[in-house]
Amino acid sequence: MTQFFERASTLAPGVAVSLVLALAATFLSEHYAAPVMLFALLLGLGFNFLADIGKTRPGIEFSARALLRIGVALLGLRIGASQIAALGWQPVLMVVLLVAALIVGSIALARTMGFNPLFGFLSGGATAICGASAALAIAASLPAHERKDQAMLFTVILVSVLSTIAMIAYPLVADLAGLTDRQAGIFLGATIHDVAQVVGAGYAISPEAGDTAVIVKLVRVAMLLPVIMVAGQITRHDATAGSERPPLLPWFVVAFAILVIVNSLLALPAAVTAGAGELSRWCLVISLAAIGMKTRPGDLVKVGIKPVVLMLVQTVLLAGITMAVIKLGWL
């Protein structure tokens, strides 16, 4: 018990700072209608000097790693088999093929542009699945390397910006394309990066479009499990000879899978799933603030324009292929 309190007192300053920045990010997000993840990152970058202070460093490290994994695990309670079954097999198949194709294509494109292929895996997964949350989950499963945090931060920032632009632009695109409400919902749910922006764009069109968009988006979120399992296997494969190999599946991936199964088999009270979703959101926001504090702003400036081009291409491809599938009448 004494060790527990000593550990808690060591972590408290850094965790408290991360929490304060998360609260500030939430306030700004609610008042200026922009992604809370983006505000958390920017605020963290502004206070990055705190990561060099011995008193706050341990708590910041804890928030950036442990809280990130807890938040990812709790995402499992957002997904249930009934939600996927209600949509029908065709949109589900489209989402599965889109996610796989975009990630594989992003790896190839990243290699062609001179990037580490893992950056293509990370950015492609974030674009194809669920934006910032996916970027955090995938990064937590990929092997460590010198520029991993920098790549993750850049991905989260850009995917949040692109998601906000898509929330505004894609309903107009759906209207110009003459899509029905159901088709518009499928288009928005399959292409907008973050869940909150999917909700905003879908229900701005109609209740039917909003409901369809959310279900399609949850199918994309469900793809997070197989993708982070693949990322975990990459980490095991890249473990150096003689070092301790990571577990077959990280604990938070196992927890994620268990919670998906529980939510599929049991009729959990809405208060439980809503509470878990809110706790997951807070863990991720606090973690992002901590990751921002660990990052030097100058490191992000050095990446240049090529990563921006890569993620723009990913976003345009996702929207273009989805629109083509819908207009060809395959859904």
From TrEMBL:
UniProt topology in membrane: Multi-pass membrane protein
UniProt keyword terms in alphabetical order: Cell membrane, Membrane, Transmembrane, Transmembrane helix
Record protein name field: Sulfate exporter family transporter
Protein family membership: Belongs to the UPF0324 family.
Organism whose genome encodes this protein: Blastomonas fulva
Compartment(s) of residence: Cell membrane
Chain segments annotated as transmembrane: 34-54, 92-110, 117-139, 151-173, 185-206, 218-236, 248-267, 279-296, 308-330
InterPro entries linked to this entry: UPF0324_pro
